[in-house]
Amino acid sequence: MTIESKLKLTLFFALLAAAVALGIWRDLGSRERSVVRGIVIDSEPGGSSPKSPGITPAKIKARLPDGRTVDVATTSARSVTTGSEIEISERVTPWGVVWFKYKD
C-alpha cells in the first residue's frame, strides 16, 4: 500500500468520523423550542427494499397549523397513517438550524 493510498484512506475515515460526530452533536446538543401538532400528509416506514441495497430511513412529511410542510425525523413511521394528527417537537441545533422530530 502506497503512502498516497494510506493518506486517502486516512482522510476518508477522518471525514466519516467527523460526519458521525456532527450527527450525534446535532441530536444531543439540540434543545426543544416548542411542541406543535401536525397532520401527516405522507409517511414511509423505511427498512430494506429488494430493489435497494441499503436501508432507507423512516420518513414523515407533515403540515403544521401555520401551513408549512416539514420533514419530521423519526425512527419508525409504522404506526403513523396519512391524515392522522401527531405531536412534533420543534428543535434547534446549537448553530441555529431548526429541525422537527416525531414525539412518540
Describe the protein in words.
There is one protein chain. The protein has 104 residues and is of the alpha+beta class. 26% of the residues lie in helices and 43% in strands. It has 1 helix and 7 strands; from the N terminus they run αβββββββ. The protein has one helix spanning 3-29, and strands at residues 31-44, 47-49, 52-56, 59-63, 69-73, 85-92, 98-102. The strands form 2 sheets. A 5-stranded mixed beta barrel has the order 1-4-5-7-6. A two-stranded antiparallel sheet has the order 2-3. A hairpin with a 5-residue loop joins β6 and β7. The longest helix is centred in the N-terminal third of the chain and has 27 residues, at 3-29. It is flat. The chain starts with a helix and ends with a strand.
Defining key terms:
104 residues, alpha+beta, two-stranded antiparallel sheet, 43% strand
Number of helices: 1
Radius of gyration: 18 Å
In terms of DSSP E residues, the strand content is: 35-45%
Decide which structural class fits the backbone.
alpha+beta
Strand order of the largest sheet: 1-4-5-7-6
Shape: flat
Mean pLDDT value: 88
